[in-house]
Amino acid sequence: MRHVLITLTSLALIGGACSAQARELAANDRYVCSWGAGTAARAQELKLSGVSLYAARQKIQVYKFSKGWMRMMALGITEQTYDSPSRIKPEALRKSFYDDCLRYKLARR
């Protein structure tokens, strides 16, 4: 009887741990990743077209953002994009950024 109770308790704990890992990301996490990927792609477009980092920063300063954290995040993403020697196409960068962001969000759970 004792062994049966221990076995059932172990299986319940394992099942709970597996269901916690298999949870989907929240809609907000997907939104943040999508928004960041779009910001990185726009920054890459500007970089490849020859726009200076200073001009790109000025464009961001003028833009109206819906949330307070977005301006600083957009500036950071733009600076990192300009600092990178990468010359990949903006759409490839968008997909890579989005996939990496989702992977990061899942790893944090």
Give a written overview of the molecule:
This is Valyl-tRNA synthetase. Keywords: Signal. Helices cover about 80% and strands about 0% of the residues. Helix 2 runs antiparallel to helix 5 and helix 3 (about 55-60) runs antiparallel to helix 4. It has five helices and no strands. It has about 110 residues and is mainly alpha-helical. The longest helix is centred in the middle third of the chain and has 22 residues, at about 25-50. The chain is globular and about 40 Å long. The protein starts with a helix and ends with a helix. The chain has one domain (about 25-109). The model is unreliable at about 5-10 and about 15-20 (pLDDT under 50).
Could you describe the largest sheet, including whether it forms a barrel? none
Total separate domains: 1
Give the % helix. Answer: over 70%
- From the N-terminal CA to the C-terminal CA, the straight-line distance is 36 Å
Helix and strand succession? HHHHH
Task: Indicate the proportion of strand residues.
Answer: under 5%
Shape: globular
| Helix count from the secondary structure assignment | 5
Determine the mean pLDDT. Answer: 85
* SS-based class: mainly alpha
| Unreliable stretches | 3-8, 16-20
Number of strands: 0
What value does the Rg take, in angstroms? 21 Å
